[in-house]
Specification:
Radius of gyration: 13 Å
Shape: globular
Number of strands: 8
Structural class: alpha/beta
Oligomer: single chain
CATH class: Alpha Beta
CATH topology: Glucose Oxidase, domain 1
Strand content: 25-35%
Length: 130
């Protein structure tokens, strides 16, 4: 399975990594900046985080930056909707960020899919990496 999605590249960069999918994401509260783990135990370190929408917190940008400082940052973040906190965090941490990707396309992404952010708003889902 290969699927190409189109969004808006908000923070420049290219990335390739295993997908970690979640419906909604709050970096403050859902992600531990010291371990890179989500509440459910999945790691975001080196992964492409795919989420439909943010669940806000004004501290989220600091958590994103702390993930980078601790060597645990995601390779990229791909979302349908973002908020200014996530954008600021990705800018500070130099994490590629793609927004405005259609929700129906993002819902087809599963944990473990190999996802490539091409740097121009295109996101290619190469299917499961195994």
């Amino acid at each position: 399975m290969t699927l190409e999605l189109k969004g808006r590249q908000l923070v420049p960069g290219r990335a390739l990594g295993e997908a970690v999918f979640t419906e909604a994401l709050s970096f403050y509260g859902d992600v531990d900046p010291n371990t890179g783990l989500l509440r459910d135990g999945r790691s975001v370190a080196g992964k492409v985080v795919v989420a439909l929408r943010p669940r806000g917190s004004t501290v989220g940008s600091y958590v994103i930056y702390a993930l980078r400082a601790n060597g645990l940052a995601p390779a990229a973040i791909v979302m349908s909707r973002v908020d200014p906190i996530i954008v600021a965090g990705c800018v500070l941490a130099s994490i590629p960020l793609v927004s405005e990707v259609p929700e129906d396309g993002l819902r087809s992404v599963k944990d473990g899919d190999l996802v490539e952010v091409l740097g121009d708003g295109r996101v290619v889902v190469h299917g499961h990496k195994y």
